[in-house]
Amino acid sequence: MALRVLIVDDHPGFxxxxxxxxxxxxxxxxxxxxxxxxxxxxxxxLAPDVVLLDIQLPDTDGFAVASTVTGEDGGVQVVLTSxxxxxxxxxxxxxxxxxxxxxxxxxxxxxxxxxxx
Amino acid sequence: MRARRVTIVVLAALxxxxxxxxxxxxxxxxxxxxxxxxxxxxxxxxxxxxxGLIALRRRPGNRTGWLMxxxxxxxxxxxxxxxxxxxxxxxxxxxxxIWPGLMVHLLLSxxxxxxxxxxxxxxxxxxxxxxxxxxxxxxxxxxxxxxLGASPRSADNLLLVSHQTTLINVMQVLAFAVAIAVLAxxxxxxxxxxxxxxxxxxxVLAPMYLTGATAIGVTLLVVAILxxxxxxxxMLSFYVFCISFTAIPVGYLFGILRTRLDRGSAVQTLVTxxxxxxxxxxxxxxxRVALSDPTLEVAYRxxxxxxxxxxxxxxxxxxxxxxxxxxEIEHDxxxxxxxxxxxxxxxxxxxxxxxxxxxxMAIENxxxxxxxxxxxxxxxxxxxxLRDVLENVHLLAVSLDLDGRITFANQHLADVTGWxxxxxxxxxxxxxxxxxxxxxxxxxxxxRILVHDEMPLRxxxxxxxxxSWSNTLDRDAAGRVIGSTSIGEDVTDRNRAVRQEExxxxxxxxxxxxxRPDEIFAAVCEEVARLLGGQTGNLVxxxxxxxxxxxxxxxxxxxxxxxxIGAEVAFDGPTAIAEAxxxxxxxxxxxxxxxxxxxxxxxxxxxxxxxxxAPVAADGRLWGAIIxxxxxDAILARDAEARxxxxxxxxxxxxxxxxxxxxxxxxxxxxxxxxxxxxxxLERNLHDGAQQRLVALSLAxxxxxxxxxxxxxxxxxxxxxxxxxxxxxxxxxxxxRGIHPAVLSDQGLRAALGALTGRSPVPVRxxxxxxxxxxxxxxxxxxxxxxxxxxNIAKYAExxxxxxxxxxxxxxxxxxxxxxGVGGADPATGTGLRGLADRxxxxxxxxxxxxxxxxxxxxxxxxxxxxxxxxxxxALGVGEPAG
Lengths: 117, 883
Description:
Chain A is of the alpha/beta class. Helix content of chain A is about 40%, strand content about 20%. Chain A has a five-stranded parallel β-sheet, with helices on both faces. In chain A, strand 1, helix 1 and strand 2 form a beta-alpha-beta unit. The longest helix of chain A is centred in the N-terminal third of the chain and has 13 residues. The radius of gyration of chain A is 12 Å and the shape is globular. The mean pLDDT of chain A is about 90. The interface between A and B is medium-sized, with 27 and 34 residues.
């Protein structure tokens, strides 16, 4: 059964390409959100298996959203992504409850799956 | 020999003439009593001739003798008209009138025997009427026929042409008139000479003039009687005439005799007077008495010199004795003195010689004394000159005796101290000036005085002056110390100028060194108060309302400040500060005792006596005032107004400097902040723009690659493009990170530092404790301090471990990056550290680098949270209108 993915990013272009990429690799993209608040709400509604969460969001940052959604009941997993390098964020990536970080340019279904194993 | 021969010849002629005349008179028909004529007439003749011979013997070159002899024989010739022989009679007529002319000549040429121009005219006129008129009338006169004194004729005039009674009468009246004029003129001349004559000259002239005047008077009388009364043959007048004329040679002889007597008596007088005179100048007085010349002066020649001095030792200028006679006096062949006296007739020079002989010893004695006195005079004059110098020099001069009493004080000392010289002299120095050296007299007595010293001196008005003294010991003739004399220069102003310069330099250094304004103002108050002799100094900033202010800085000699900082001041009345505000110039009040107003009351209550205040202008506006005050008896320096102004300028300079620095710091902080904002914007643009597109491209490539079989020719190309793209993205990320750490603005300093240390190749121990939120510029500065330090450590330090400690409280943040590397870093050589220092400095912070070789490097940044830079304290704000 395909993993259900929620993409949270304020760039529609990235969301579309990520959706296409992940679906081509057998993922089911169940929803998209353009802001942190929207992302949290959609995650609650859709209860995806994994949230692909951009760190830089217009209303908050990905670490706060990750803390929120991973801290709630339901077992949603979060994979952080950013066009920046993961080292730019230091220890924040590891302490916010996310399963890991994938640079946007290196995004692939295999990588997401690897982080979730 | 010649003189004797002349005497013999003249005497022989006289004897023969006497005999001849006796013969004439014995046989004459003219006079009834020829014996009487001989009895009275011949003594006149003999008297003149004998006196003339004596005069010739005394002065062979003098004409006086010959004139007297001439008169004698002329007189004799007048008797020839008594002869019964026509030849003798005629000869008598020719020669009988010669003697009156000779007489006038004698009187006017006496005593020198020579005539001046005026006398020569008179004498010529005399000869003209006595001899000339007589000779002219001879051819027309037969005297015994008619006219005056007509008597029976003895003989005939052989030269008679025709007896002309009328002519004779006219000529005689004419001759009479001229004779009167000549005699009157002669008398005037003689009178003038008498008046102008010195006593010595008068003594010479007296006998001759007295007898001569008598003779002339009698002559005039006789002529008048004979002419007017027509008395003929009155022998009484003839006798009187003879006697009075005899008196002339007798008087002359008496004069000679008296001169001889004078010499003896003058010497006697001199000896007597010298015996009684013991005072300087006694000899001069004695010589004046002896020589009857009250104008006589003795000039003594100083031994071994050509200088002449009087008995008192005063210099005598012999060249100035114009119109006076001088007589040198010698002793042992050396000129010892010169007598300066009235011109002396030749007859009297012997008198001077006679007197000076016995006086020579006394003169020599007095000369030595005069020389001594001259030396004393020189010493005295030298002393007087010294005193004059001390008196007039623009320095203080004072002499003290061994009791410390002032024996001399010059006017300048009086001027400076305010005490009059009368008040000073006689009092002790310490009594007048208690600030003097109490051990000075001890040192004078021990002869160990300091040649130069500087002592304070309090003037009568209470002002303290600094005097630089030069001291010398005073000694008596025996060399014993009897006191001291000191010359002092008032160096108060000079010292104060030097101290002012030093004070201003210290303050300028503080201002330039960016010391805190309150520290500078406190220093200004102290410096200016000390300089001007005040006990307190205050700086007042004017308030918004008129006439009010707040004390913002102060200093007091005593510990408690009369006007504490923060005290409110309202200036009313004519106080110094109120005047300074009103006029915009420094003002002073020397005594608040009579100043009205609340502030004056308050100042009096605080013990303030005098004040000087200067306005402080900042940014073209009146900002406040600086005030120096004295308490107790002290008074302000006299030039306090001029000096305080420069300190007001220092305050103004400090204000404007602080303001300028604050503006500069704020400007730099703004530049840094603007730079940071721009970096942030750039980074964001990169992130939102290029990075996003490249990411999208990367995803598209990957999708394309997935759609292509592995053996498809495009597969390798797509893989290669994907790698290149990844490389480009990485480089772009690195670039963006360098432009601005997004995590810093997004996640704060702690996260940013965590990210930094996470990338560091050298292990880092990070310790961050932030007690408060940091402003973005401080966060940025702290981040860059750590980033630059880590970069340097990675490049150069060869460190094993790095320790980073970040702390902050409400005031500021402190960042310390310490490694255990090789050290030896020089902040001046790296642009990175220098740029960091500028960034920290722009925030008002300090960056320090300690990097001893071999002992690691520690970079410390102190960052104030008030990032606007150093602002002046609110109480000192600049640019506000003073109200």
